[in-house]
Amino acid sequence: MKVKVAINGYGTIGKRVADAVSLQDDMEVVGVTKTRPTVEALHARERGYPLYAAKEEAIEGFENAGMKIEGALEDLLQRADVVVDCSPGKVGATYKPLYEKAGVKAIFQGGEKHEVAGVSFNAYANYEEAWGRRFVRVVSCNTTALVRSLYPLKKEVGVEEVQAVMIRRAADPWDSSKGPINAIEPSLKLPSHHGPDVQTVIPDLNIYTVAVKVPTTIMHLHSIIVKLPKEVGEEEILSLWERYPRISFVSGALGVKSTAKVMEMARDMLRPRGDMYETIIWRDAVKIVNRTLYYFQAVHQESDVVPENIDAIRSMFEMADKEESIRKTDKTLGVGWTLS
Ligand code: NAD
Fold first, then answer.
1. Which residues are tagged catalytic?
2. Superfamily per CATH, domain 3-139+305-333
3. What is the number of alpha carbons within 13 Å of residue 162 lying toward its C-beta?
């Protein structure tokens, strides 16, 4: 029996989660929602995803546009075991009462507060916490990447303190409505929300983050400084991370010197939509001085949370243990490559 998955909000994250679900042998997409009859709605239909209106009153708009529609979100929820809410940030929480009423499980995304679900999820760090749960929140792209590289460090070496600067992309590539287009915008709220968000997954990690928005659509970049409790070599840290396939390495020596080049690699790898699910660490910029580790990582904001959503579903339905779920997800998405 496959778990029946509905996607509410077929946008940047929703369309990727839908495609990832459809690659799994233990779950299936039973429908996706759109608010309006846009080109994405057409693409959803072309991919064979039953299309529903996010709101009852939106149905007419689809019909007027001559677009076949199966009903409204309420109808879709009747057919689903779980809804992956991929509506815009803060909108997801407004749907919780509807999900409760329909008796479906729900996954929220990082634009919602931790409290919406009570469990904030990352497959490496706390797969078991989502086990059998009704509501789970998959943390944001930045938090996912921070947890991926910091969790192994904390678990296997120990961490005294983390300081990280989030250099954030201003908007996703399709989005021409947001800026800044010619400014660097520091987040004046300190710490930025990312550190506290990491602590929703790893509560006892001593982390402080600041953030800056820059005029790019191509990935976030993190500059991370970690005080370690003991002397460790750089090679030891690298081989520790190498055991986690959702971290991959690039090097300036091979000409990968920017986020643009990382995205070009994803396209050259013929990844769907040019996606890079892995957190990317520059191997030749991992340095340790006086027990202090310095590294840079790049984050493909549109796709790194996709594997986590798939694992969250398996944990919520008690379908596979952590290692098996991660292995299955990674195999189907082609996650975990090495440059030799
Ligand atoms: P998006 O704007 O690309 O997509 C949102 C989708 O929801 C669109 O299809 C839109 O039509 C639809 N929508 C709008 N209003 C709706 C409503 N009232 N009900 C149902 N659907 C509605 O947004 P996104 O980037 O995919 O973000 C979705 C969630 O994922 C947010 O919580 C966001 O914070 C989180 N997230 C985004 C990124 C990213 O970089 N894009 C990364 C990780 C997590």
1. 141
2. NAD(P)-binding Rossmann-like Domain (3.40.50.720)
3. 30
**Per-domain residue ranges of the chain:** 3-139+305-333, 141-299
CB within 8 Å of 274: residues ≥ 6 apart:
263, 266, 267
Task: Report how far residue 238's alpha carbon sits from residue 259's, in angstroms, rounded to the nearest whole number.
Answer: 20
Q: Which of 39, 107, 109, 259 to mutate to test the pocket of ligand 1 (most atoms within 8 A of CB)?
A: 109
* Cβ of residue 35 lying under 6 Å from some atom of ligand 1: yes
pLDDT of residue 56 exceeding 70, the answer is yes
Give helix 322-333 / helix 306-316 axis angle, nearest 10°. 140
Q: What is the arithmetic mean of pLDDT over 5-13?
A: 98
Mutate to test the pocket of ligand 1, among 13, 40, 121, 138 (most ligand atoms within 8 A of CB): 13
157-184, pLDDT tens digit by residue? 999 999 999 999 999 999 999 999 999 9
Q: pLDDT tens, 212-250?
A: 999 999 999 999 999 999 999 999 999 999 999 999 999
pLDDT band (50, 70, 90) for residue 4: very high
What's the CA-to-centroid distance between 88 and ligand 1, angstroms? 3
pLDDT exceeding 70 applies to what percent of the chain? Answer: 100
CA quadruple 230, 234, 235, 237: dihedral sign: positive
Ligand 1 atom closest to 36 (CA)? 11
Band the pLDDT of 340: cuts 50, 70, 90.
Answer: low
How many residues make up the chain in this entry?
A: 340
Nearest atom (ligand 1) to Cα of 169: 40
Specify the 3-state DSSP secondary structure of 91. coil
- Cα(306) to centroid(ligand 1), Å: 13
Q: What is the pLDDT of residues 94-112, one digit of tens each?
A: 999 999 999 999 999 999 9
Q: Which atom of ligand 1 is nearest to the CA of 92?
A: 32
Q: Name the residue at shortest CA distance from atom 41 of ligand 1.
A: 302
Which class does domain 141-299 fall in?
Answer: alpha beta
